[in-house]
Structures are given as structure tokens and as C-alpha cells.
Amino acid sequence: MTDSHPVYAYAVLRRTPEATAVAAQLRGLAGEPIHLVGPPTATPPLAFAVGRVPSADYGDAPLRAHLEDLDWMESTVRSHHAVVSALAASGAAVLPLRLATVYRDEADAREALDTRRAYFLSLLDRLTGHVELGVKIYATPDITPPEAAPEPARDTVTGLGVGRACLAIRRRRHRRNEEAWRAVVQAAARLTETAGALAVDRVAHTPERGSLAGSAPGTNMGNDAYLVPRERVGAFRTGVLAAARGVPGLRVEVTGPWAPYSFALQPEPAA
């Protein structure tokens, strides 16, 4: 049967009976059933997890328009992640594909998969048995980066020394903030070394600022992803949190485990 529907690709994984069964229970971002697609005779069997999506929404022009729609993007991120997470929960090594990876049809998806087969298999070999953990390091709200707290200018108030006294107080506070910031930076560096020793790889993402930081209190100093052997997840979490314990002005969050988004290089979409 000829299939002319565009397909949205969520991830790459080895085709196994377990993965096939899990995929068959999933629904994608358009409510479509998820299934595995790949070259039928290749060994070992490799597949894209895909769902057929309507051309009216996922052709070139409508897809470009959707990518400018923040509500659509938010919904798509949630649905995309739900499919990837469910596949990863089956125990399979999963390479998440980038958001909005769409192929013209299943034949194009099979061809793209076959073209990069050796590359995908090498990544899957490396990531098998590993998960991604996120580590965010914050300075508490009472400690600010020196550039965000400029040194007080000379006070123009004179007489009776009140102006000078106020200026001296502000400068002492500024110096204390600088010293506290340096201490937190040093502690964050030690914590990063601890996390790196417990992981097999690290990707340093840009610290979150402004609206991207959400409601998290304090200044985000580190926003890193670590590739961790699955059996070492508990030790990693315990070790990182212990490294931050008792450090004044330092707060750390460990998130995950996730599918290894930060360690999977995604192919370009064909449509």
C-alpha cells in the first residue's frame, strides 16, 4: 500500500518485539498511533518511531507557521517528550530526534534512516545503558553577580559625615557580596568536578536568565547535562547533592533521569 502521508519522527531505536509493543500503545502529537519504520531486511534492525500526520498541518508552509506559534510549540514539546519518554521507559536505548522532524512519507523516512545507519548504531551503542541527568546550580537570591551589583558611586551628601558613613556601609556590603559570589563560584566549580567524575560525559548548556529561568529563586550559574550509567543514577544524585550541602549561598537541583537528548545529534528533516 502506498503511503503519501507525511510522518513525524520522534526517535531512533533498535527494533525489538518489546519496543514494537510499547510503540503500538502510544499516541503522538496529532493523536496518531505511533509505529516503527525502518529498512525491513537490515541487521541489526533499526527504526524510526513515527506517526502519520496530516499534510494540512505538517507540509512545509504550515509547519513553518506552526514553529512561530508558541502555544503549538509548547504542546508539541510535551507530546514529543511523552513519546520519547515512554519508549525509553521500555529499557531501550533511544536517540531523541529534534522537534518537528518531518519526512514526506515513510519511504523518505526509511531512506534517511538507512543513509545514516552506521552513525545511528554507533550512537546507540554508546548510549545503551545510560540516561541523562540535569544539574542546575544556583546562587541564592541574596548573592548577586558583581556586574549586577555595581560598586556604589561616591555620595554627594556631606556635612556631619552621614553621607560618607552611608557610602562606606554600601561599599562594605558590595565587598561582602563579591566575596560571597567568589566563594559560590569556587564551590560550583568543585561540584561540577564531582558530577563529572560520576558521569561519562557532560554538555554545558547556557545558564538560564530572565523569563527562561522561570520562578526558580537566585541566579542560575550552571545548567549542565550529564550522561550517567543507569545503575549509577542514585550514586550520582547523592554525590552531587552532598557536594552542595553546607555551602552558604549555593543551591543545586538534579533532574531526570531522561532520555539522552543532549547527547544525540539529530538528523535534518527531509520535509
Question: Key terms for this structure?
Answer:
271 residues, 8 helices, alpha+beta, 4-stranded antiparallel β-sheet, disordered C terminus
Summarize the model shown.
The chain has 271 residues and is an alpha+beta fold. The protein is 40% helix and 22% strand.
Describe the structure.
The protein has 271 residues and is α+β, with helices and mostly antiparallel strands. It contains eight helices and nine strands. Strands 1, 2, 3, 4 and 5 form a five-stranded antiparallel beta sheet that branches. It has a four-stranded antiparallel beta sheet with strand order 7-8-6-9, with helices on one face. Helix 7 runs antiparallel to helix 8. The longest helix has 37 residues, at 162-198. It starts with 6 loop residues before the first strand and ends in a 13-residue tail after the last strand. Residues 266-271 have low confidence and may be disordered.
Mean pLDDT: 82
The gross shape turns out to be elongated
Largest sheet: 5 strands, antiparallel
Instruction: Determine the number of helices (DSSP H or I, runs of at least 4 residues).
Output: 8
Q: Could you spell the SSE succession in H and E letters? A: EHEEHHHEEHHEHEEHE
Structural class designation: alpha+beta
Quaternary status? single chain
Strand content: 15-25%
Share of helix among residues? 40-55%
Low-confidence stretches are 266-271
Annotation, overall tally of beta strands: 9
State the separation between the terminal residues, measured CA to CA: 21 Å
Backbone CA Rg: 25 Å
